[in-house]
């Protein structure tokens, strides 16, 4: 076989001293220098990455290596060494990709199906004290998410609301007595939180035309409390977002995806829960002597208003289609009972005044500041 | 590039150049492949991507005629990440639960976890550097790093505390102290590197940055304090009386007092200084890199750097122009799509097409900026540092002997990845 030679540098892997050598390629690679003589089998040669004019070959066993810059020699070497490019560490890229996809999909499925199932099991096991604590934290978060709406605590109205809440809760299977609070807000909505906390936003009281409608909304939220839906959805949302952020790295703005995913998943989950809460509300309102179908009326009114003016926090309300719900509520409620409804006219008037117009900021300017901090 | 003629003549050169091939053939392929595979593998591929990038940059950095070599593997990084996750996940869960359940601890949980994660992050940075050092080989000799990650984290935390207490004046001294710790624990084979970096050597660039970027804001805050005899009334910021539980607002009672004007001065100073600070960062970085390189030596051999600050500006400038051009191209494509949406939004086929092309456009935009960033900023910065650095007294390096120390495990870098500190490629040491 024709012998090719070139000049190169030899490193013994023990010292950084470069040793000028002559590389001689036949059916073996001979390295000849002042105090070096090596005779390497071509099967043992491995090329390692190097900037293009430089070629670096090392011996498969041991730490010795040689560098040279002769392109023709490099070509000849590549032609004669079968294992030159063999990299022990590479390989299995397809396997890696498939396994990662499988792992990712499995975590996703867990997030979509496993977490809600697990939260169904865990939610009833959460001790009352912890749930109450959790409710407090979630309320703080939701309130700041809503833009810190002020609490409405008009005394007479509160008394009526408390009586209404007590009547609705009476005889229904509630884990605890719900605590109802009203906040001034321009979105017609009501929320149930862990620990039996229910928040009514003032606009829903403004949109209600009768006491029965308000009672229906309140009872619907009590229905969520009775089913421990808020606890469940907190566990689900926490678990899902945790899993999703675990799976999705930080390469493509994943936080957005996490949020979207969470919202989509929890919306799918809520639909059944909403139907159950509707049924609960109808029963509770009827038992308290009101018109169960009033809930349907106010739902339709709110939805109509929302269609005209979509609001930023509509995601808080992931309710199924209103028409379908209203029809179901009406069929459950049956005939409208005789009587004036759940609240007397005077009581209803008083509830509507629960959120009096705020005092102008200037009025409180001198008095308010210091003690509030 | 003559430096590549790697055969040392019988009388070896006294100085050695560091070269980096800026043509970067094949780099785009690595980035595109890394991005797309990371996308489909839920970003698990990123460890292999980082490894490929490093192998590319290391092997094209030719130090005194011999290219460096990166020996790390993606699998090591991935395993390190898994272990770090196993350590961190319980910590995160505990922090989360504590924050949810106890309101008293919840207010403390945020600062405590911030401080805890900061210290852990410093630890992770140092350990990650250890992994990279032990996976770097040059002329058949592995680099290494000893020293303790905890000692480094403690040192860094104390220095940061001092820097904050001194209103930022101690910053260059902190940088120098940490640099000395890092370099003094860096080994090439059995030989230990030494750094004589001093805070004084970067005091001037830092002061320039400081005076332009930080001082106006600090001064205006001090003026605000002085105007009140260092006694800011506790009700300067009050809760908005308009609603019960609300954000803090500026107390209208103080509208006509000096507070308002000094407060405005703070805002104005900050709005001028912050953009200036961004403009001055490359300058400071370049000067610091030069000072620290000049201070590093290994026995008799020492590094010299003639890095000019403008070499750090050009890449960012080119990158900005490239991104603007890229956005224009995307905008044109998008403009072509708009009529489709406008004309027939109802047709499900077109609807799906529009959604698909929007997603593709989004991914394409991210991929494009990634490629541009690596090709323009990373490559040029790397090249700028390499090309301006020389090794003086090169023959002294021949005395370096390989070490029998076992290379550090991949666990060292896992924590850094899990905590999201440190990057795939760090310019400089």
Description:
Chain B: The chain crosses the membrane at residues 30-50, 77-101, 108-126, 202-227, 259-281, 316-338, 350-373. The complex is a heterodimer of chains A (373) and B (429). With 373 residues, chain A is α+β, with helices and mostly antiparallel strands. Helix content of chain A is 51%, strand content 14%. Chain A has helices at 71-80, 93-122, 128-145, 155-169, 202-207, 211-226, 229-247, 254-287, 294-308, 322-333, 345-352, 361-364, 369-372, and strands spanning 4-11, 19-25, 28-33, 37-41, 45-48, 55-59, 65-68, 179-183, 190-193, 197-201. In chain A, the strands form two sheets. A seven-stranded antiparallel sheet of chain A has the order 4-3-2-1-7-6-5. A three-stranded mixed sheet of chain A has the order 8-10-9. The longest helix of chain A is centred in the C-terminal third of the chain and has 34 residues, at 254-287. The relative contact order of chain A is 0.09. Chain B has 429 residues and is of the alpha+beta class. Mean pLDDT of chain B is 80; it is low at 1-10 and 241-246. Among the domains of chain B are: 216-294, no CATH class; 308-387. The interface between A and B is large, with 67 and 77 residues.
Biggest sheet architecture of chain A = 7 strands, antiparallel
Poorly predicted ranges of chain B: 1-10, 241-246
Question: How much helix, percentage-wise, in residues of chain A?
Answer: 40-55%
Strand residues, percent of chain B = 5-15%
Strand order of the largest sheet of chain B: 3-2-1-14-13-12-9
Question: Which two chains touch over the largest interface?
Answer: A-B, 67 and 77 residues
Structural class of chain A: alpha+beta
Spans where pLDDT lies below 50 across 5 or more residues of chain A: 249-258, 264-269, 307-319, 360-373
Rg of chain B (C-alpha, Å)? 26 Å
Distance between the termini of chain B: 24 Å
Spatial strand arrangement across the major sheet of chain A: 4-3-2-1-7-6-5
Give, in order, the helices and strands of chain A. EEEEEEEHHHHEEEHHHHHHHHH
**Terminal CA distance of chain A:** 92 Å
Regarding quaternary structure, what we see is heterodimer
Report the principal-axis shape of chain A: rod-shaped
Report the sheet-strand fraction of chain A: 5-15%
Count of the domains of chain A? 2
- Work out the helicity level of chain B: 55-70%
Rg estimate of chain A, integer Å: 37 Å
Largest sheet of chain B: 7 strands, antiparallel
Question: Based on DSSP secondary structure assignment, what is the total number of beta strands of chain A?
Answer: 10
